[in-house]
């Protein structure tokens, strides 16, 4: 049976793949602006726009009804890290614009923000998958998971008028393929 936590973990698989792409770009000093912009678009629309929205608007508030605090503890840490991630993405985006205007120093700032995002999200996903989601599984009933999955599905339908998350997963796969990155 699919669970709400498994649904979120499935999103993580794709987000981690994008992070591997980012790590490759940084390590090999790649400078393809279109790829930088694609990464920002994917993060804003899939990782943050859909995945984090499912967590922040549905999953975490549901956990609050089961006794989890939104102000302290694991959920509060996850919410704080979502904000930190958004700040890194703002840094990537702002420096893409500067780089496009010819400011070469902006390239290192793009890499630094990508690295910060990559490091943050690797640790963040590990904490969610191994700690928070396991704690949630102990308190969520089968009916709770069913309700959350229904709400996740509705959120995905409302989020995009296109193919939904599939569109962004395909973009991640295209980037990974371009850089010869397999799972």
> How many strand elements?
0
Q: Quickly count the domains.
A: 1
The major pleated sheet works out as: none
Into which percent range does the helicity of residues fall?
over 70%
- The CATH architecture term is Up-down Bundle
Basic shape: elongated
Instruction: Report the CATH superfamily.
Output: nmb1532 protein domain like
Rounded radius of gyration (Å): 17 Å
Low-confidence stretches: none
Which fold name fills CATH's third level, the topology? Four Helix Bundle (Hemerythrin (Met), subunit A)
SSE succession: HHHHHH
In round numbers, the mean pLDDT is 95
Beta-strand content bin: under 5%
Quaternary status:
single chain
CATH class: Mainly Alpha
- Spatial separation of the terminal alpha carbons: 24 Å
Q: Structural class, please?
A: mainly alpha
What is the number of helical segments per DSSP (H or I, 4+ residues)?
Answer: 6
Please describe the topology of this protein:
Layout: H1 4-27, H2 33-64, H3 74-100, H4 105-139, H5 142-159, H6 165-178
Helix pairs in contact: 1-2, 1-4, 1-6, 2-3, 2-5, 2-6, 3-4
Describe this protein's structure:
Helix 1 packs antiparallel against helix 2, helix 2 (33-64) runs antiparallel to helix 5 (142-159) and helix 2 (33-64) packs across helix 6. The protein is mostly helical. The chain has one domain (4-178): Four Helix Bundle (Hemerythrin (Met), subunit A). The relative contact order is 0.19. It contains six helices and no strands.
What keyword list fits this structure?
82% helix; mainly alpha; 183 residues; elongated; Four Helix Bundle (Hemerythrin (Met), subunit A); 6 helices
